[in-house]
């Protein structure tokens, strides 16, 4: 993949994760696996597990990241981010230092209580949940700051209602990041 093929929001999100060489990461909604490739370049003994409910997306992600999948740094799984989905995929009992999602509606469209409880269970002590968003249409209609503020408020409220603390990361616009800790 060429450098120009990586969307800026994904570059910013991975940079904000501050990936350590030995981190154990879980990506929710990996899509075609672009972030997986960026994360794998930063890992030596660490690993990333990427889940998406779309078999088409995970097949694309596995092809894109064939090297890291082959050497064990990456695992790509077709599963919903639910307890039954992850258990069926063989991920029950795993612990992660960082869980992240990029442009996944889950945390801003509803209460996500079950998913936040699952994330809290999957996080290793001291671990964190990271959610990154690029609001749709903001630059086109001139409402970027308003949409960033709206997303930030919704995700922060969802995290806090789910028992997480929430810290807002100020990333270069148009991306916002929220870090939650149980």
Mean pLDDT: 92
Distance between the termini: 35 Å
Structural class: alpha/beta
Q: List how many beta strands DSSP finds.
A: 7
Strand content: 25-35%
- What spatial order of strands do you see in the largest sheet? 3-2-1-4-5-7-6
Give the SSE order as H and E letters: HEHEHHEHEHHEHHEE
CATH class term: Alpha Beta
Low-confidence stretches: none
**Mind telling me the CATH superfamily name?**
Vaccinia Virus protein VP39
Task: Give the domain tally.
Answer: 1
Given the C-alpha coordinates, what overall shape results? globular
The biggest beta sheet, please?
Answer: 7 strands, mixed
Q: Which fold does the CATH topology refer to?
A: Rossmann fold
Contiguous helical run count: 9
Q: Which range best describes the helical content: under 10%, 10-25%, 25-40%, 40-55%, 55-70% or over 70%?
A: 40-55%
- Rg is 15 Å
- Named at the architecture level, the CATH assignment is 3-Layer(aba) Sandwich
Task: Give an overview in words.
One of its GO terms (molecular function) is methyltransferase activity. Keywords: Methyltransferase, Transferase. Residues 26-129 form the Methyltransferase type domain. This is TPR repeat methyltransferase. A 7-stranded mixed β-sheet has the order 3-2-1-4-5-7-6, with helices on both faces. The chain is globular. The chain is 41% helix and 25% strand. The chain is α/β, with parallel strands linked by helices. It has one domain: 3-Layer(aba) Sandwich (Rossmann fold). The protein has 9 helices and 7 strands, in the order αβαβααβαβααβααββ.
């Amino acid at each position: 993949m060429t450098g120009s093929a990586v969307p800026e929001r994904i570059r910013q999100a991975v940079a904000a994760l501050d990936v350590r060489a030995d981190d154990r990461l879980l990506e929710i909604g990996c899509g075609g696996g672009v972030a997986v490739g960026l994360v794998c370049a930063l890992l030596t003994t660490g690993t990333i597990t990427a889940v998406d409910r779309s078999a088409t997306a995970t097949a694309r992600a596995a092809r894109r990241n064939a090297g890291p999948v082959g050497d064990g740094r990456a695992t790509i799984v077709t599963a919903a981010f639910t307890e039954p989905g992850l258990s069926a995929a063989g991920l029950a009992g795993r612990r992660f230092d960082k869980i992240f999602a990029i442009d996944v509606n889950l945390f801003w469209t509803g209460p996500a209580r079950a998913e936040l409880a699952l994330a809290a269970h999957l996080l290793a002590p001291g671990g964190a949940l990271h959610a990154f968003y690029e609001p749709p249409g903001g630059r086109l209609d001139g409402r970027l700051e308003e949409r960033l503020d709206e997303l930030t408020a919704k995700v922060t409220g969802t995290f806090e209602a789910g028992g997480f603390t929430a810290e807002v990361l100020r990333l270069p616009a148009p991306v916002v990041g929220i870090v939650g800790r149980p």
